Structures are given as C-alpha cells and as structure tokens.
Amino acid sequence: MIYEERYGFDSKTALVLVISGVFVAVAILLPDMSAVVRILTLVLFGGGGLLMLAAALSRKVAMRVDQSGITLGGSPLRYRQTTQHVPLPDIEAVVLWRQHTAANIPWIGILRRADAPPPSPVPTGGRRAMNSTAAALSGAPDERLMQCATAINGWKLDTAELKAALQELAPHVRVDDHR
Question: CA-to-CA distance for 120 and 110, rounded, in angstroms?
Fold first, then answer.
C-alpha cells in the first residue's frame, strides 16, 4: 500500500489566493495610494499569491508513505533541497500537532528512533538552535521532531489513510495525534 498526498488547492489555499487577488486589485485600482504602499502591496500579496499558486499547480509530492519510508515534500522555492526521506526502520512515531498561534496551523513530524543514524545533514551549532526555535514556534511536543517536520499547508492529510498505510508497511510505527 502506498499513501501519497500532493500539493494542490484546498480551502485555505483558495482563501489566501482570493485575499491576495483583492489586495492586488486594490493596489492597482485605488488612485490615492502612495507609490511605496502600492509597490509593497504588489510585491507581498502579488508575489506571495503567485508563489502559492505555483506551489498548488506544481502537484509535487507533499507526503508519501511507501515500503522505503516516509517522504515529506519540501518548500516550493527549494523543493529538492528541503524534501526529506526517512527509512521505515528508523522511525519510532509519526506525530501530529497544531501550532498554537493565531494561524493554528497543523503540523506533521517524524520521531526517529534514538539509535537511528543521524539525519543528513546532522544539525549542529546554528542549525540546532534553529530547530529549538522552530520547535518553540511550531508548538512541537518534542524538539527532535523538527529534524523532519513540515506544516500541513497547501495539502490535506487523511489520517485514516496514513494510519492504514503505516499499519500495513510498518506496524512498529505509532501515530501520536496531539491535535
């Protein structure tokens, strides 16, 4: 069994695209707007909206569970460099949680076994500090999750399908849902 989700259009993505479009339209059509505000609005909302649209249209893999392991797709700007793959024998648990901010973003992370080989590249120095900060900001229940985690943003997670795939492919891997 293979479970796979791809980046695409969900209700949140559609809402952000509509809001971005409204701001861009206002920036273009409102005659009394200062040039600085107009340019900032076009760059932030126009650029951000285009980036989100490109990610949704890319249909790249956001998450995949197969016999080789779990793959978490990377960020749209640096997909190849930020995509992570963890072999099934190295995984202790898949953890789901919500970021406790106004955005209330859902996250998924892979908790690696304590004796698993270190992830590549190994977090050191500044990267370790970034993981601690990211864990604090994301609300991750365990800092180690930030070695391999992503926000569930621009794609939908089917928890039942994820559990079914893991039960078949790696019954030793538990799913901890903290949402």
Answer: 14
